[in-house]
Amino acid sequence: MAEKKDRAPTMVDAINRALHEAMDSDETIVVIGEDVGTNGGVFRVTAGLKEQFGKDRVIDAPLAESGIIGFSIGMAMNGLKPVAEMQFSGFSYYALAQIENHAARMRWRTRGAHSVPMVIRMPYGAGVRALEHHSESREAFFAHIPGLKIVIPATPARAYALTHAAIRDPDPVIVMEPKAVYRTIREDIDGIEPAEIGVSRTVREGGDLTIVSYGAMLHRALEAAESLAADGIDTDVIDVETISPLDAAPIAASVEKTGRLLIVNEAPPSFGPAGEIAMRVMEESFYSLHCPIRRICGWDIHVPFFAREQAYLPSVDRIVRAARDMITD
Amino acid sequence: MAEKKDRAPTMVDAINRALHEAMDSDETIVVIGEDVGTNGGVFRVTAGLKEQFGKDRVIDAPLAESGIIGFSIGMAMNGLKPVAEMQFSGFSYYALAQIENHAARMRWRTRGAHSVPMVIRMPYGAGVRALEHHSESREAFFAHIPGLKIVIPATPARAYALTHAAIRDPDPVIVMEPKAVYRTIREDIDGIEPAEIGVSRTVREGGDLTIVSYGAMLHRALEAAESLAADGIDTDVIDVETISPLDAAPIAASVEKTGRLLIVNEAPPSFGPAGEIAMRVMEESFYSLHCPIRRICGWDIHVPFFAREQAYLPSVDRIVRAARDMITD
Amino acid sequence: MTGHLEYPEPSTKPHRVLDANGNLVDDQTSIDDDVGFLEEAFKAMLRARRFDERLLKLQRQGAIGTFAPIKGQEAAQVGAASTLRDDDWFVPSFREKAAMLLLGVEMADIFLTAAGWNEGLAGKKGDRRLPETVPVSSQLPIAAGIAYAARLRGEDTVAMVFFGDGATSSGDFHEAMNFASVLKAPVVFVCQNNGWAISTPRSAQTASSTIAQKAHAYGMPSAQVDGNDVLAVRQVVEEAVERARTKGLPSMVEALTYRMEVHTTADDPSRYRDDDEIEAWRARDPITRVETFLRSRSQIDDAMVEVLEEQIQDEIDRAWAATKTRIAELEEQSDEVIFDHIFEDLTPPLKRQRKDFLKTGRGANDG
Amino acid sequence: MTGHLEYPEPSTKPHRVLDANGNLVDDQTSIDDDVGFLEEAFKAMLRARRFDERLLKLQRQGAIGTFAPIKGQEAAQVGAASTLRDDDWFVPSFREKAAMLLLGVEMADIFLTAAGWNEGLAGKKGDRRLPETVPVSSQLPIAAGIAYAARLRGEDTVAMVFFGDGATSSGDFHEAMNFASVLKAPVVFVCQNNGWAISTPRSAQTASSTIAQKAHAYGMPSAQVDGNDVLAVRQVVEEAVERARTKGLPSMVEALTYRMEVHTTADDPSRYRDDDEIEAWRARDPITRVETFLRSRSQIDDAMVEVLEEQIQDEIDRAWAATKTRIAELEEQSDEVIFDHIFEDLTPPLKRQRKDFLKTGRGANDG
Ligand SMILES: Cc1ncc(C[n+]2csc(CCOP(=O)(O)OP(=O)(O)O)c2C)c(N)n1
Ligand SMILES: Cc1ncc(C[n+]2csc(CCOP(=O)(O)OP(=O)(O)O)c2C)c(N)n1
Ligand SMILES: [Mg+2]
Ligand SMILES: [Mg+2]
Fold first, then answer.
1. Sign of CA dihedral B218, B222, B228, B229
2. Residue A313: inside a domain, yes or no?
3. Predicted pLDDT of residue D91
4. Per-domain residue ranges of chain D
5. CB contact under 8 A, C145 and A76
6. What pLDDT score was predicted for residue B122?
7. What total of structural domains would you count in chain A?
8. A33, A124, B84, D2: least surrounded by Cβ within 10 Å?
9. What is the rounded CA–CA span in Å between residue A245 and residue A173?
10. Of A152, A181, A210, which residue sits at a domain end?
11. Is C258 a catalytic residue?
């Protein structure tokens, strides 16, 4: 059993397998990005693809994020299905104009005559002792743009399921990959079906408190839930997984049971995803709330260099304390 | 009186005057942007500056938003105080990388050895029958970035006060100018003091309901408040003015009185500023809330071409209806 | 210790067939085979000019919104676009109405868009005449990607992308040129250097001697052409199209032309340029030049031009009438269509919002 | 109908003074006046090489984090940076540790940064040696703005900005080059073309014949130089610095060099390049070349090199020891410093968050 787990795929393996399968079954799929070909990606997510599918379908791009996305939009409009990699989410801002101006708008602008069925993958988030600009969580930028879907897998199986789903989607989907989880969890992915985009998943059931999270922080939320359980506090834990369009229904349903909602994510709190989740739940279940919705996030600061990055990230301890406060509130 | 009002400055005039005064009193100030010099800006906000201060201090830049901001960051680091214009906020995404990577971080990165005292002005918002990409409200992008201040004036006097304040600030400040108000309101600005950044202003007092807004929508909120008053519903109206750092205290104080909060802004609702305002008020005044906080925003769609842009914008009618619903809730 | 740094002046000379007076620049050349083309081009340019004038008039009357006139640039657009096959891709900036008309875009659709209705851009599925691009130069990497995809899918189609002199300053121009060249995409980059980017003259935009030479930074061949000489433009662009079609490789053409009108209808050029300059370019009007030539060859005369003018006015009148009818219809429809086409299928939040929208109405008080 | 499009091959030949064996390329040249410089350069390059090796060792031991080794690029950096005055601006990318050391950045600060502490980048107010830039090419427009400001404020200082071959593909390179040229900013653009951008070879990065020729697209002069020839680099860059200082104008230098190590410590070059290539470049090692030359002139001998090596090791040891002490001190301090320097003054939300932070502690369980 333990041995099997040791050999089970990491998130990197899982995405890699999904890409292989997809490219194998659909020859319109192309992969593009900096170092995605010969090098197999700086995180090895695209390893082996160039060998198998050739350099025309696995494109080692020049160093230019706006170019990569603009070029991909063009390919998507002309019969291909590009899966573009931003080497780190911190460099995707260079592509924001192309994403906002065209990827998100082409279907609308042309009243459906053209569409941009493409996937943008990007590793994001802190916790891997990386250099500056390699640790941010700016999913809110993309989630605020109409016409885009944003998904964030938390485990290898979900990464596998969401990568397949993103590729099948007829619209642009951004897959933000929590690189802190890239190699820390192994999980069986055999027989996993493509995900349904736009569905929040309940991953733990309790009755006293609802914790909502996603990405790497989901695991801290789950750890906190265990710790709370030891104290007799039972929590629902919900993985929103699709940031946009946000599925608030299961969260609202849970809150109607628990009356308490704690949101955990690693973006800076201000104008981040937690506020939106809270707003949506409030719109649906205000009268069930026993106490204010709370959020445990990063801080409104730049992610410190790695010696102090854990001081930035929500700790299990902070989650547990907040949860206890809410229960006694 | 009416005559005086006719001659009183518009928001364009007010900003223009602030820029003239500031450049006159501080020779480190430079203005840069596309068409800001000879042409005086496509909205005439920088009219007359080049004639008075010369082409080296009023720089007609090549067509490159990232370049304009990067170049300005450099000037700010070397003893100047640039006031950069993005011709329309919809083109500022090209500069987001420079803003996030450097303007917002240089002080922090160098532990205070360098700072980026610069102002980025950009007209934003819908309602002026403009072309695609000329009508968006994406203040949330900037507000989510640590190290930046974002202000949005709603009237000529506030534009004058905030422009001066932004120029005096030692850190990068983004001034988003609601172009729908550029020429529609005239207001005396003589003797107006520089604003204090980071303060929400109560612009109307009532007791039944709190409406929070900013920018062009503030005027619709005020119109709605008048209409509600006719029905005997008295509203506090608060102009947040500084989006980031957000001053939630006066809003919370008002909600402690009214128990009801309605947020009005023109960004798409999802992951927009309204969620953050709601979250902050909930954190501070949850137990005073009689009913769910509500928001009247744009929709999660692209701003339609101008024949239908009013269908996108929050209407006075929608605000009034929501307010009435909340009162009877 | 000096002499290492160098800036070699490019030797480029703009290609020209007919001079400003409609005479052959080099009387050794025969353009007898091109007279048919010139006649068609004359008609297309005149049609575009008149349409543009009507747009301007309608804008001044408040019937339509802001738009970017083409006056003066008809030859650059018609010459370039005339080289495209039906299955090639046309990727415009926001000032290509002459090319659009030539390529079959309906006047009524252009009117409808200019009047502020999204329906004006509703193309047919897979239509390869793309709508206007507003963010300057953002269409360039897209065109490169379109072209690459065509090649990967085994088509011999090309993508032709249009942009201005101002666009060449922006990062997307650079990235697109580089991608096209190094990844071998069959794109034809057509720069209409009309001397101005709103109020910014070419000299303040970039310090290179020519725009054409910028292509060399990407190992890409290029040429300068008199952009007011429709035949010269066609010849040079044809060569670029051939290179794209047969070799799958990109090139760039700089067409030297002039914007004789306002930048857009929101612009007042008197703030930044002299009438003298406009006058000088009026003498180089791309339409007059062909007209003079055709008259000199007796291909056209007053009577024919008169008939042509009437036909054009008639076509424009009918298109505008149709547009007004269409607008009246659209105004009857519910504005709930604003939620259409954001995604292939409406997402749950959008469904909810549309319901909300229908409940609260449009807010007629603000409309 | 062909022959209009052209791509003139640039004639640039890289400037070189010493060949790979340390012999004068042209025995007509006298470099007697440069021997002093070469001796200094040799020391600086050796010091940088040894420091780099120590960083690599420490990284492999887990004592510091990811960094980008400089091995092979010492001459390009030392030659270029040696031309700067104290009041000039140095604007690096992320691979300029040899230049940084030469310009007085403390080894201990570099160690501290590499160990993950923000304090390593704490400069003195107004310090003109800027810290590393991680987002490729984003430093270029900043350098142009710095230079422009210097000129506007009446200083005769220049800004020297470093970047790689990969950086030249990105929009910010293009926009910076254009701004600097058209707005006349005294910048020296130094491209270290080390053949690779992570796994992407120069040939897949761009199709231009040289990187140097890219400057011509902006009307900017440029030169190619053997980047492993420290004197040649100095000579060419000196000319660019002079042009900036005296004329206030920019230029660009392409230094042909090679990254002999991993891209960063997270990289495995065996995936994408052959050892043969590295071997070939080992023969062109920038340090050996100068060493051979200096030995041939009896400027140095075994004993001197031995002493030098010892001094360097000693300096590195002391710096690392100081760093460890500093880290121990920092580890004692409260992490509340993470809230410092976001703004000049802490904003109210940040004050509240810092209070929160202090209340809930650091979360030792995750640290
Ligand atoms: C990215 C971006 N920045 C700014 C603008 C505003 N703008 C519209 S047209 C224009 C000038 C374009 O000049 P050029 O490329 O020469 O084209 P032309 O207008 O001469 O046809 C500017 C600055 C824009 N549309 N997009
Ligand atoms: C904008 C941006 N995109 C991607 C990266 C990831 N990255 C870091 S270094 C590098 C390659 C840089 O190549 P080059 O400019 O030649 O410099 P070199 O590493 O050879 O010194 C890449 C792609 C980055 N840091 N910034
Ligand atoms: Mg132009
Ligand atoms: Mg390199």
1. positive
2. yes
3. 98
4. 32-332, 342-367
5. yes
6. 98
7. 2
8. D2
9. 11
10. A181
11. no
Whether the pLDDT of residue C350 is over 50: the answer is: yes
Residue B287 near residue B259, CB atoms below 8 Å: no
Find, in chain B, the residue whose alpha carbon is nearest to that of C339. B301
In the predicted model, is pLDDT for residue A140 greater than 70? yes
Q: Which of C126, C141, C350 sits opposite A66 (nearest CB)?
A: C141
CA Rg value for chain B:
20
Residue-wise pLDDT for D45-99, tens only, equals 999 999 999 999 999 999 999 999 999 999 999 999 999 999 999 999 999 999 9
Report yes or no: B68 and B86 within 8 Å, Cβ to Cβ.
yes
Residue nearest to atom 6 of ligand 2 (CA): A87
**Who's near B209: CB < 8 A, 6+ residues apart?**
B228, B233, B234, B235, B236, B258, B260, B261, B262, B323, B326, B327
Give the CA dihedral C134, C138, C139, C141, nearest 10 degrees: 180
Asked if the structure places residue A6 within a domain, the reply is: no
CB contacts of B198 in chain D (<8 Å) are: 347-348
Q: Residues 26..85 of C with a Cβ closer than 8 Å to B: which?
A: 65-66
Residues 174-203, chain C, touching B (beta carbon < 8 A) = 197-200
Q: Decide if C263 is catalytic.
A: yes
pLDDT, tens only, B161-214:
999 999 999 999 999 999 999 999 999 999 999 999 999 999 999 999 999 999
β-strand partners of B233: none
- CA D56 to ligand 4 centroid distance, Å: 19
Q: What are phi and psi of A124, to 5 degrees?
A: -145, 165
Average pLDDT of the residues of chain A: 97
- Let me know if D278 is exposed, middle or buried by CB neighbors in 10 A (0-12, 13-18, 19+): middle
Q: Which atom of ligand 1 is nearest to the CA of C164?
A: 15
CB-CB contact of B285 with B252 (8 Å): yes
Supply the DSSP string of D284-299, one letter for each residue.
Answer: T-HHHHHHHHHHHTTS
Are residues A151 and A276 part of one domain?
no
Q: In which element (H, E) is residue D201 found?
A: strand D200-201
| CATH code matching the domain that covers C32-332, chosen among 3.40.640.10, 3.40.50.360, 3.40.50.300, 3.40.50.970 | 3.40.50.970
In single-letter form, the type of residue at position C100 comes to M
> Would you call D154 an interface residue with chain B, using a CB distance cutoff of 8 Å?
no
Structural domain of residue A73, as residue ranges? 11-181
Q: Residue A255 is which amino acid?
A: V
Q: At B228, which CATH number?
A: 3.40.50.920
Q: Could C127 and A113 be called an inter-chain contact, meaning their C-beta atoms sit closer than 8 Å? A: yes
Whether A48 and A168 map to the same domain: the answer is: yes
Which domain CATH number covers A51? Answer: 3.40.50.970
- How far apart CA C118 and CA C130 sit, in angstroms, is 14
pTM across the whole model:
0.98
Across the interface, whether the CB atoms of B271 and A97 are under 8 A apart is answered: no
The alpha carbon dihedral of C123, C126, C129, C131 has a sign of positive
Query: What is the ipTM metric for this complex?
Result: 0.98
The enclosing H or E element of A173 equals strand A173-178
In whole angstroms, give the CA distance from residue D146 to residue A231.
Answer: 58
Residues A159 and A70 in one domain: yes
- Beta carbons of C171 and B134 less than 8 Å apart: no
Residues A174 and A212 in one domain: no
pLDDT < 70 regions, chain D: 1-2, 361-367
Predicted confidence at residue C364, as pLDDT, reads 37
pLDDT tens, position by position, A286-295: 999 999 999 9
pLDDT (tens digit per residue) in B244-264: 999 999 999 999 999 999 999
